[in-house]
Each structure stands twice: as structure tokens, then as C-alpha cells.
TrEMBL record:
InterPro entries: Regulatory_FmdB_Zinc_ribbon (IPR013429). Residues 1-47 form the Putative regulatory protein FmdB zinc ribbon domain. SMART domains: CxxC_CXXC_SSSS. The lineage of its organism: Bacteria, Pseudomonadati, Pseudomonadota, Gammaproteobacteria, Lysobacterales. This is Putative FmdB family regulatory protein.
Length: 94
């Protein structure tokens, strides 16, 4: 079974999810949308959590969207704008 990594969309999260966490999943399992411990919205990422935001050049946008991922690029201090996928248009605070 593949191991998938998740990162919280709304820090700080909890002890389980604050730095991201890994979960064994069957291919037929639906991705988690919320931390199982604290309910913080989470997002599944490819590879290390550090490349999920700000590493757009490492990941092909079409591939991400097709697999249900949402990708963001940094547009300002603490703000991210969606580049592909079905998530919110922006994340961060004004
Ligand atoms: Zn949590």
C-alpha cells in the first residue's frame, strides 16, 4: 500500500498534523480531507510536504489537477493563490 503525506491547510493543527503526517492507504481509499485527531482541514501532498507549496516548478499542474490536488503559488507574505485544482482560490489572511 502506498504511503500518502498530508499537510494542514490551517496551521497550527495538532501534535499529529502540525508538521504533516503520513498515512497508509489503499488505492481505493478516498483521500483524507480533515485531520483524524483534531479536524483541521488537510491536503494530500506528493513527496515531502516542503515541496507542496512554493515548489510549483517541481510538479506538473495538469497532473496535479487530474489527481484531485490543488496547487498554490506564493503571492505575498502568508498568502497563496491557486494555480490549479479545485480548492479555494486563495489561502492565507488579509
Ligand atoms: Zn490535527
Amino acid at each position: 500500500m502506498p504511503i500518502h503525506e498530508y499537510v494542514p491547510l490551517e496551521p497550527p493543527g495538532c501534535a499529529l498534523c502540525c508538521y504533516g503526517f503520513e498515512r497508509l492507504e489503499r488505492l481505493s481509499d478516498a483521500p483524507l480531507t480533515h485531520c483524524t485527531a483534531c479536524g483541521t482541514p488537510v491536503r494530500r501532498v506528493l513527496g515531502a510536504p516542503a515541496v507542496a507549496v512554493g515548489g510549483a516548478h517541481l510538479l506538473r499542474e495538469g497532473h496535479l489537477a487530474k489527481h484531485g490536488f490543488t496547487q498554490y503559488r506564493k503571492v505575498g507574505k502568508g498568502r497563496y493563490e491557486k494555480t490549479t485544482g479545485e480548492g479555494p482560490e486563495t489561502i492565507g489572511s488579509d
